[in-house]
Specification:
With 281 residues, this protein is of the alpha/beta class. It is 40% helix and 14% strand. It contains ten helices and eight strands. The structure holds 2-phosphoglycolic acid (PGA).
Length: 281
């Protein structure tokens, strides 16, 4: 299957919120209010809520599908790792996984080397990966933001055989989205109410794709969707969706609010339809 254009994706990272019962209810409420067939929607609840979310989304009418994602995965296939969750355990519960979120880099000491292993485990389990990268405020202020993000992309993906994976990606039935999506999430913008500028996010998307090109991804990474994340709301989503290099958003706080998600996905839908009407524009 050859993808004609990059999909538009809105992923909600629910972080450590909701019980299983709450999550099941929230998933159907948001799914119904944000119904937008042209946008790939992914809800990422806590591990213990994956089953409830999956079950409640299964009751949606056909054509309204929402994918379910995990927020993390362990870097080993199995073993004595108390409290951890392997990629194989996610089978049947999630088809996407967030890897390398800055809160895990901060709280669990995740390094690019570890994230590389997580990506390998996710691939073995045929999970779509959302790889998070982003600089600290000090990096941006000192002019080091691009170098930091480039190093993260390279450090997380350099072991990947891009050509082999792309061939596999095209052969496997991945639907509208490729196996890899990258979320550019400046750390200083996450949960702070201080979002990046659309133009800065677009510039960073250019840096990310250029780096993918040096790693052997075809068309200089042009097939890989890049999302913006960090204090995305219905009021600022437009700033990102008007940038041709940005393919959607990874939403934290606002992803728990049905009206906010409905408005964010609706705005993303405008871009998705514009792309479909003018492919390659
Ligand atoms: P936020 O979180 O939208 O609450 O800033 C984004 C994220 O952490 O993915």
């Amino acid at each position: 299957m050859i993808r004609a254009m990059r999909p538009v994706i809105v992923a909600g990272n629910w972080k450590m919120h909701t019980t299983p019962v709450e999550a099941g209810d929230l998933a159907t409420t948001i799914a119904e209010r944000s119904n937008e067939p042209d946008v790939v929607r992914v809800f990422c609840p806590p591990f213990v809520c994956l089953q409830a979310v999956r079950d409640s989304l299964a009751s949606l009418p056909a054509g309204r599908s929402v994918a379910v994602g995990a927020q993390n995965v362990h870097h080993e296939p199995a073993g004595a790792y108390t409290g951890e969750v392997s990629a194989a355990m996610l089978a049947g519960l999630a088809s996407w996984v967030i890897v390398g979120h800055s809160e895990r880099r901060r709280d669990a000491g995740e390094t690019d080397a570890l994230i590389r292993l997580k990506i390998a485990r996710a691939q073995e389990a045929a999970l779509h990966v959302i790889l998070c990268v982003g600089e600290q405020i000090a990096d941006r202020e000192s002019g080091a933001a691009e170098r930091v993000v480039r190093d993260q992309v390279r450090g997380s993906l350099e072991a990947v055989d891009a050509a082999a994976l792309e061939a596999w990606d095209q052969a496997a039935s991945w639907g509208a989205s490729p196996w890899l999506t990258i979320a550019y999430e400046p750390v200083w913008a996450i949960g702070t109410g201080r979002n990046a500028k659309g133009a800065d996010a677009a510039a960073m998307a250019g840096v990310i794709r250029e780096t993918l090109g040096t790693l052997g991804f075809s068309d200089a990474g042009d097939e890989i969707p890049i999302l913006y994340g960090g204090s995305v709301t219905s009021s600022n989503i437009d700033e990102f969706m008007t940038e041709a290099s940005i393919d959607g958003a990874l939403v934290g706080g606002a992803s728990l609010k049905p009206d906010e998600m409905a408005a964010i996905v609706a705005r993303a839908g405008l871009t998705a339809r514009a792309r479909a009407a003018a492919p390659g524009a």
